[in-house]
Structure formats: C-alpha cells, structure tokens
C-alpha cells in the first residue's frame, strides 16, 4: 500500500478566478531567448544583457537617453509629405501616409531635435523604421537638411542616426534628389568646421547608405547592424556566388574599412561626449584671433 495518497489532480483554480499575464511585462530576446522584465530591458536601453543583441528602437527612445534628462527642442515637427506624383499602388499615397501617421503617431520617417547631451549642445536627427520602412522621401531629406542648417548656423555638432530601407518609391525621383540635397548640406557643414557623426543602426540600406549615412567625419555603428546598399539576397542572385559569413554586418563593414568604430548603445552617450569634446568647433569670432596670435608669437631659437 502506498504511503501517500493523491487527493486532487491537476490545477483546480476555477476558470473565473484565472488571470492572464498582462502584456508588456516581460521581454524575450529574439537572439538568445533570455527572458527579462521590460523594466530591466528598458534600463539596459533595449540591449540584451546576456548576448548583447541590440533591439531596434525609435527616435523617441534615442532622444530620451541621449539628451540630458530627456529634455530637447524638436525641429520642424509638423512637416508632412505631399503627393507630387499622384502615386497609387494598393492604395493612394496620401491615404497610406495618413494611415501610417495614425498607426505610429509620427509625421514621417525622421525626427530632429537639439538640446544638451552630457552637458554639450548637440543636434540629432533620428530615423523611425516603422514609418514606411524608414524610407527616404522629400520630408526626410528636407528635415535632415534643415537640421544640418541649424547645426551649421549655431556651430553645434550634428548626429545622424540612420535606420532605413532606402528611397521611398512612392516619390521616385523626388526621393533620389534627397541624396544630393543632404550631401550638399553636409559639404557646407564640413566647410564650416562643424563636426558630423553618422550612427548606422539596423538596417541602414539603399540610398541612405549611398548618401548621408556614409559621409560622417566619423561613421560609427551599433553591433550587428545590417549595413549595405542592395540586400544580401539581391547581391547573391546578381553575382551567382555565396556571400562571406556575416556579410554586411557592422563587424564585417568595420573589418573592411568603412566604419571607424562600433559602439554599444549603453556607451553611446559617453563615447559621443568624449569624441565631440575633442572636436568641438571654436567660435567663429575666435578663429581670426587665434591665427593672429600664431603669427605674432615669438619663434623659438
């Protein structure tokens, strides 16, 4: 005879007393499957503490941790797309934009702002992939151009955070023109001696890679970011060969000389502060005085 006796089997909680686990309490890493609370995941800036996998985040998230106390002044917040080509695919372009605005709360695929970061003035433009794949249309190009102008006029370093599938097909040639426009504005920024740092995140592809994303005084990236022009599948089909392991990852691109360094998101703010502290442009009025001082300084014998 058994020395124990099972009284009840299974779960006996009445159905009406059962409770569902609320959504948004836990996060499961899509790379290593480690589970942590959402509060902890947010504290780590949406980076897995186990495998260092960097989740995609939005412009609002970057602004929150890059700007001191999350305080910033947004630039051109209400700029929205027109419909220059009267484009229609499965739906009319204006209706697609309006639906995306409702679903995301965004006006377009980039936001720009200025404020203090580690006590230093900084202008930031950050792309949002959830707005039509972060595609670059006229508004994206115009907002980036205006942010560059603001940085140049106020002699404030400019940080561009790219995340994009490339040009926006609904605007065709108008979209491609943004490559030239943003590149020309960055040339003016360079002539003014104002630093430009380009941060490439996952993914950065197409016309964005072929223009402003690769024109930084420093081109940096988050770990594991996909960086390229055409996608790996298209390239493989074009050349008819298997691609190297890790092809187009940030680490692969760094190894082949197209990046200056890779930075963990949790270290980004301090790394930027250190870098920009060395590159801080001198006030325009001080430059001639410095040159005059050098001309009149006595020579060593």
Structure characterization notes:
Its EC number is 2.1.3.15. GO terms for molecular function: acetyl-CoA carboxylase activity. Zn(2+) binds at residues 29, 32, 48, 51. InterPro entries: AcCoA_carboxyl_beta (IPR034733), Acetyl_CoA_COase_Trfase_b_su (IPR000438), ClpP/crotonase-like_dom_sf (IPR029045), COA_CT_N (IPR011762). Component of the acetyl coenzyme A carboxylase (ACC) complex. Biotin carboxylase (BC) catalyzes the carboxylation of biotin on its carrier protein (BCCP) and then the CO(2) group is transferred by the transcarboxylase to acetyl-CoA to form malonyl-CoA. The protein is of the alpha/beta class and 301 residues long. The chain has ten helices and nine strands. The chain has helices spanning 38-43, 59-66, 93-104, 138-154, 172-191, 206-209, 232-239, 250-255, 268-279, 286-296, and strands at 26-28, 35-37, 73-75, 110-117, 120-127, 158-164, 196-204, 218-221, 261-262. It has a seven-stranded mixed β-sheet with strand order 3-4-5-6-7-8-9, sandwiched between helices. Strands 1-2 form a two-stranded antiparallel ribbon. Strand 7, helix 6 and strand 8 (218-221) form a beta-alpha-beta unit. Helix 4 packs parallel to helix 5 (172-191). The longest helix has 20 residues, at 172-191. The protein is globular and about 90 Å long.
């Amino acid at each position: 005879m058994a020395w124990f006796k099972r009284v009840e089997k299974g779960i006996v909680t009445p159905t009406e007393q059962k409770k569902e686990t609320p959504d948004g309490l836990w996060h499961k890493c899509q790379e290593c499957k480690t589970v942590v609370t959402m509060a902890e995941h947010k504290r780590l800036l949406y980076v897995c503490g186990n495998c260092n996998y960097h989740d995609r985040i939005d412009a609002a998230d970057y602004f929150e941790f890059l700007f001191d106390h999350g305080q910033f002044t947004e630039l051109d917040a209400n700029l929205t797309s027109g419909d220059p080509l009267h484009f229609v695919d499965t739906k009319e372009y204006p209706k697609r934009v309006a639906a995306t605005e409702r679903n995301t709360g965004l006006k377009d695929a980039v936001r720009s702002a200025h404020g203090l970061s580690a006590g230093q003035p900084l202008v930031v433009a950050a792309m949002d992939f959830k707005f039509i794949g972060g595609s670059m249309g006229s508004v994206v190009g115009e907002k980036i151009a205006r942010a560059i102008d603001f940085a140049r006029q106020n002699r404030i370093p400019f940080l561009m955070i790219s995340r994009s599938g490339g040009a926006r097909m609904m605007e065709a040639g108008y979209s491609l023109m943004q490559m030239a426009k943003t590149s020309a504005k960055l040339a003016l920024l360079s002539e003014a001696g104002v630093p430009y740092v380009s941060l490439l995140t996952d993914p950065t592809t197409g016309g964005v890679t072929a223009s402003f994303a690769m024109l930084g005084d420093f081109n940096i990236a988050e770990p594991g970011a996909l960086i390229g022009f055409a996608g790996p599948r298209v390239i493989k089909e074009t050349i008819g060969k298997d691609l190297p392991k890790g092809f187009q990852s940030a680490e692969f691109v760094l190894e082949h000389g197209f990046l200056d360094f890779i930075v963990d998101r949790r270290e980004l703010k301090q790394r930027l502060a250190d870098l920009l502290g060395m590159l801080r442009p001198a006030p325009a009025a001080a430059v001639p005085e410095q040159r005059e001082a050098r001309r009149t300084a006595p020579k060593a014998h």
